[in-house]
């Protein structure tokens, strides 16, 4: 596992306050708004619960997305 994936894996285990502290550490010039931070924390929680982060698909769009994951040309 590369270093960035290991860091992400470890960050997912942290409470939201500590994640916010890390984000602020690496973005000192540009602070995330409370709304952006809340969205990031929500995405982490959704990911931990295995929720689909891709978005809703309908019909052919879903088929094309699944084909692209397998490397099959889409129509």
Describe this structure in words.
- The model has no long low-confidence stretch (mean pLDDT 81).
- The protein has helices at residues 3-11, 16-26, 34-48, 60-70.
- The protein has 75 residues and is an all-alpha fold.
- It contains four helices and no strands.
- It is elongated and about 45 Å long.
- The protein has one domain.
Q: What keywords describe this structure?
A:
mainly alpha; 75 residues
Oligomeric nature of the chains: single chain
Helix content: 55-70%
Secondary-structure element series: HHHH
- Low-confidence sequence ranges: none
**Termini, distance in Å?**
35 Å
The major pleated sheet works out as: none
Work out the radius of gyration: 17 Å
Average pLDDT score = 81
Report the strand count. 0
- Total separate domains: 1
Counted by DSSP, the helix tally is: 4
Q: Which of globular, elongated, flat, extended, rod-shaped describes the shape?
A: elongated
Task: Report the portion of residues in β strands.
Answer: under 5%
Summarize the structure.
With 75 residues, this protein is an all-alpha fold.
Topology at a glance:
Blueprint lengths: L2 H9 L4 H11 L7 H15 L11 H11 L5
